[in-house]
Each structure stands twice: as structure tokens, then as C-alpha cells.
Amino acid sequence: MPRFRQLLLLFLLLWLAVPAVLLAQTETPAAANKRLFDRTVDELNFRTMETVYDKSFARGKFPVSLRTAKARREFDNFPGRDDLKKLFQNYNSVSDRFKSRFGKGRTDLVEFEKQLNTILVDRNFEFFIRVLPRDERIALIRSLQRAIKQGAAQFNASQDPAPEELAADGAAVPPADIDPASASSANTTPEAVAAEDPQPEPEVALASPATGYAGPRSLDTAPRHDWMDYLNLLLSGSSLLLLLYLVTSVLPDLRSRLDALTEDQELPAPRTRRPAPLPEDRYEDEN
């Protein structure tokens, strides 16, 4: 009976392991590279949203479990910032469509890196990160570039055509499934975008929010002041003037009075001289 259980357990393990091995063997390099591209896009989108969220909420932290578009779609922890919630939802939908940029037409390593780099110069991406200061935008782009290089290092280039074939086929022409705006923006390197501090021009899908949605204010622009700000400024100035009056007028007068009172207490009392005693009269007996 124990031997039968061991055989049953071995059969169960083989039944689970053999299909996985066969699936790994039957998966083509193109399918594996497509899955790698989708996973890299999810990683880029997660890091972008994490940076913007952590900058917008000083006490909040973007959950590390939101590495898929479906998980981010269900996330709604935006306390008091409905405008930011709408922005995140719009960009999550738009950025998930970046996955369709690879898998049709050319599927070599050059196209893999090219389509990932087009995300960093996409107008929707630039519009989404515009709330970050310039230095943080540059740091984010460089971080995403490192993630792209890590994804390219895992690319299976066993079926890539030779460089001579790419030159003969016109490798510089973008595939048909890429829109002209993205193809033209691909000629701009991410390094140049990071150095030039781009001014984004958002697309309608992301930049045309619902009525009443003003979008988050950029940290590089000066805020508008209302009557409350001016009232605070007036009260601060009054407090400063009152402090100067106390330091320059009231405190010196109070100090002089205290010094005078101290001197009066320290003066010694005048001494009174006692009169000298009169000599005593002595009468001696006369003999």
C-alpha cells in the first residue's frame, strides 16, 4: 500500500511537469519576446505611476502589488484628489495600449528597444509626468531607460535577421501598426528629451478630461493667491512689528526699572554715631 501511494505521487508530479515542459518547448521565441515586451511595458507604467503618486501624496505610498493594468484599474486610494484619480485612470488605459506596438511586423531586438523607447517620448507620457519637477522627470526617464536595457538583455534574438538583411529591407521604415506621431517621435532619443525639459502636448484621450476637471497644477508654475493668503501675510507682518516694538521699547524700559530697583535695595543703611560716655566723678577720701 505505501508503495502504491509513492507511485501515485510520482505519476501526479509527472502529469503536472510534462505539460509545462512541452509548453516551454513549443513556445516560439517570438511569443516569448512578445510576453517579455508586455511585461516590460507594465514595469515602465508601474514605475511612472509610482513616482507621480509618491510625489503627489507625501504620506502615501503607491502599492508594489499594482504591477498590472487590471490591478491599477481597481486602485482608488486618492484622498481628496478626484482630479488625480481621473488622471491615473486615463493614463492607465492609454498606457496599456502601448503593448500593441510590438508583435506585428518586425519582432527583432532593434524593434523591441525602439518601441519601448517611444514610450518615453510619447505625448501622453510627457503629459502625465508634467507634475514632477524637471530634475525628477530626468531621474525617472533614466530609471526607465535602465529598465528597458534590462528587458533587452532577456530578449531572445535567435531568430533575428542579419544586419545586411535589415539594411536591404529598409529597416528605418516603421511598421504599419505604428501611428505617424509615434514613429516621428521615435527619432528623438530619450537623452535629448531629458535634457530639453519637454513641454508636452497631450492627446485627446488623456488631455480632454470631463467637465470640471482642471488637472493637477505643475510644481514649476507659481500658484495664485487668494484673500486668505493676503490675510496670513498681514497677520505675519503685524506680529513682526509687535515683536520689534517689544524688543526695542518695552524691554529696555522694563530692564532700566529693574536695575533701579535693584540698586535701591543694595544701598547700605546710614550709621548713627553713639555719643561718647561722660567720665565718672570719683571722690577720694581725704585722710
From TrEMBL:
<keyword id="KW-0732">Signal</keyword>
<feature type="region of interest" description="Disordered">
    <location>
        <begin position="172"/>
        <end position="218"/>
    </location>
</feature>
<feature type="signal peptide">
    <location>
        <begin position="1"/>
        <end position="24"/>
    </location>
</feature>
<feature type="compositionally biased region" description="Low complexity">
    <location>
        <begin position="172"/>
        <end position="186"/>
    </location>
</feature>
<protein>
    <recommendedName>
        <fullName>DUF4349 domain-containing protein</fullName>
    </recommendedName>
</protein>
<feature type="region of interest" description="Disordered">
    <location>
        <begin position="264"/>
        <end position="287"/>
    </location>
</feature>
